[in-house]
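Example record for the data management plan.
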Amino acid sequence: MEVHVMKVGYDRRWWGLGALALCMLALGFDMTILNVALTTLSEKLHAGTSELQWIVDSYLLVFAALLLLAGLLGDRLGRKRMLLAGLAIFGAASLAGALSGGTGGVIAARAFMGLGAAIVTPLSMSMLPAIFPAEERTRAVAVWSSATALGLPLGPLLGGWLLEHYSWASIFLLNVPIVLVGGIALALTMPETRDPAAPKADGPGSLLSMGGLVALVYGVIEAPVRGWGDPVVLGVLALAAVLLAAFVLWERRAPHPMMDVRLFRDPRFSWAMVAAITANLLMGGLLFVFPQYLQAVLGNDAFGTGLRLIPMLLGLMAGGLTTDRIVPRTGHKPVIAAGLAVLAAGLGWGAFTEAGDSYGSIVPWLLLVGLGCGLSLIPAMDALMAALPADQAGRGSGLVQTLRQTGGTLGVAGLGSLLSAVYRDRVATGGLPAEAAHAAHDSIGGAVAIAGRLHDGALLASARDAYVHGMDAVLAACAAGSLAVAVLLLAFQPGRRRADAAADEPQSTHEHVAP
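Corresponding structural encoding:
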């Protein structure tokens, strides 16, 4: 494959990567920082449960719906131009959210933040092949991926500290200087890249993909709340299946498709995609169940919870540094498989956690989970970038990010349902008033609140034990999934020689790069 790499000065391209990493760090922690602020928002803005849910979900729905379209527009109009526009939208929406005086304004601001993030995420990824030669790409992808992944557990840490010292608006204002500094740095260091031969706007494809993704994400968000058998959930998921199937059929026949379905015929791409979705799903699943364990079972506050996620961050950083040294010598396949195996070992170890365990006994498996995630996710993303044609960097990156995010959302919804089922089956609420029993049976947070109000030590112990059993079931399922994908990847992903041969096949490209 012929790839045109912009001859950007060594210092300049690494400064540009630093600016990209800074922006992705902000987007990463913005995905989780709101989790520790919902109680504060409920009190200060008088927001009900439904309004709080829309504050969270408005971002996710817009984000998932527009990733594919954003990648296509970047290829056509210029990736740097669209990236800077996305940062401007994200920063302006963050400022609007901070200045908003009501839940309606915050919901609207979060939706526009999702729009900005949908533009920035795929296009920041698509910039890497334009300025980094193949021998430096693994390191560049490691920095980019690590910044995104590090932001997720940093969210509760930063959010807890900000809410402890400042108002709720601070969690929105935090984004503004980061985006401003990152945007200026990108404008000065990054070249403009585009594909003059990129397909024109695919109207039917855009509508089908956006409608299908919105329906899919909304369905999996509602499923743990309403139940997977609820008519609304089943109807929305059925609509998503119809729209997405129609999208794939249209793209196979469209004169100017926004998604190249032929990418999935390349086993380098398809198996790297499976590995990336798996690592993303498992990390998202852990970040869904583990902070609640730290708070409700071990009794930590939001800031303390963030601090106790640091071992996972350290493992992730170690994994990223290791891949940079190993992948150039071994190729992607053995490193990704080893990373998934380490991830399975850490999650499997964590599945033996008991309610009475101390935090010190948890640290070793947290380190392993972080290390495994770094060893699997980062080389998987690098393998995906290597498999993408240079002239499809934008829409290819949009496809990668769409599959990662929707796969992660589906996984977390399924894992959340498993956790809830085990918890509700084991928690003992006998003898409580009906309303109190319902609250305690619904969630560990409700049980802790009721136990504190009634001074019911037995309920507290039962709820904590039930939650830990549910968390163990989730971690065991994640470990089994990670190990299964590692085995399948070893069996079916092409080895280094076959991958290199495929990469050397001539492939036309019309990539245009300008300073």
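Summary line stored alongside the record: The radius of gyration is 23 Å.
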